[in-house]
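Replying to the earlier thread about multi-chain prediction with a worked example.

Input:
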Amino acid sequence: MAPATKNRGVSPRLVERLSLYRRVLQQAGAAGARATYSHELAAACRVSAVQVRRDLMTLGHSGSTTSGYEIQPLLSVIDAYLGDTGSVPVALVGIGHLGRAVLAFLCWRHPRFVPVAFDRDPRLTERVLDGVWCFPIDRMADAIREQHIRVGVVCVPAPEAQRVSEQLVTAGVTGILNFAPVTLFLPNHVFVETIDISVALEKVAFFTR
Amino acid sequence: MAPATKNRGVSPRLVERLSLYRRVLQQAGAAGARATYSHELAAACRVSAVQVRRDLMTLGHSGSTTSGYEIQPLLSVIDAYLGDTGSVPVALVGIGHLGRAVLAFLCWRHPRFVPVAFDRDPRLTERVLDGVWCFPIDRMADAIREQHIRVGVVCVPAPEAQRVSEQLVTAGVTGILNFAPVTLFLPNHVFVETIDISVALEKVAFFTR
DNA sequence: CTAACAGCGTTACTCGGTTCACAGCTGCCC
DNA sequence: GGGCAGCTGTGAACCGAGTAACGCTGTTAG
Ligand SMILES: NC(=O)c1ccc[n+]([C@@H]2O[C@H](COP(=O)([O-])OP(=O)(O)OC[C@H]3O[C@@H](n4cnc5c(N)ncnc54)[C@H](O)[C@@H]3O)[C@@H](O)[C@H]2O)c1
Ligand SMILES: NC(=O)c1ccc[n+]([C@@H]2O[C@H](COP(=O)([O-])OP(=O)(O)OC[C@H]3O[C@@H](n4cnc5c(N)ncnc54)[C@H](O)[C@@H]3O)[C@@H](O)[C@H]2O)c1
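Result:
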């Protein structure tokens, strides 16, 4: 009934947009740009220009009338807000088709998140996959505690998802990205984000006509 | 700037919830249940009971005071609303890590969507992957036209996503599920749903503390 | 010099979605 | 039988995210 998580008073949409802004700004910066206007950033994120300005306002950041927002300072502000405390260890459970894809993605494309892999299939564990050591599932709690892992990614089959995420939580994880098509029932202090590919496909199929 | 798609006057959130309801009801039905109450359905979907009742009201469906909603009739109503016209062919472009996972998922777990696979890597094409024939990318437009495919799934690297989705659209696709971390610029009549795993992870990391 | 212009910051408002509150109905128990 | 408990249906209130509108500042062209 309740939306569960308190969101710490921050709207998830805002966080999503900030994350988008950051990526776009990083790319723009890498391409040599030094500053950008709210409407440029907006267009690149499919958002209105006022929305960009307002979001940056809530961050307490101001641009200049003449040249818009300088990219580097703005990036610093966003980083500070999103809590860029360097690399974030992530417990990735279930190294099947999807888990493997996420693993590869994190290793190659997303150095900020460093995955630690777990599976229960002995054919996958005790070896290196995509440059990451894969632990058997019964080592998971210890590994999470030792490395102070707070974020978990659940890529196990649907019937296992509830149990696995409970294990994650009792080991200390407080945020879960869930790919299994089930609703997880976890303590209220745990933030759960479910990516339900089936539902997304149904939605596309519905609006397609 | 504009929200682009008209949504045909229907809220995407509603469609998501209906899709969830349907899945839960199917499982409940398979487990032998014959009817359910709004609060049960609500709990299973992390939604309030009034929300369920209101959603069903907009579908024009009524339950009984005594035993709630009968599962089978309700399923029929939801199917009719979501436009369950049997199987939906889907053009899946990019059979790398992620594309492969989606392919396997659709074939094994989601018979309603039947994927047709495309890639540009000759090592992947002209052969059967997970029971599906994989076409080379230059056969894509023809195949989409021949089979009247309306839904596309984009699993190619970010720099290719814009071009590939344009190809999909000119071939007749009007709805795209995009996994590439870029914003696509497409005609307004095309419905685009982007699943951005990076952003989702950042969100979880943010609310984790 | 100054007038037109372009972009930012901010306040007030709009609008869609969610929830409240309550009425109506049905079965059950005393 | 009559109250009671529990569920559905729904008008109205509520809430929050997004938007429009406006004033401000600095820049540029005439
Ligand atoms: N593949 C997709 O594109 C896709 C799409 C939508 C949803 N999903 C969901 O994601 C999940 C994973 O999908 P998949 O295609 O990778 O499945 P998969 O069968 O390929 O992989 C599942 C993996 O989880 C491991 N596993 C199972 N139980 C475990 C446990 N208790 N502890 C640790 N590891 C365990 C298995 O050994 C296997 O390696 C499923 O819930 C699926 O419904 C997948
Ligand atoms: N793997 C993940 O978990 C993950 C997570 C988030 C986002 N993504 C995004 O999903 C996309 C795919 O990821 P991936 O890990 O599967 O990458 P990948 O490199 O494993 O696969 C990409 C596939 O696309 C094919 N391809 C490239 N250009 C093509 C073209 N023009 N036409 C047809 N096919 C083409 C390649 O041959 C390859 O098979 C990327 O945009 C990635 O950023 C992936």
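The CA atoms of residues 159 and 182 of chain A lie 8 Å apart.

Feel free to reuse this layout for your own posts.
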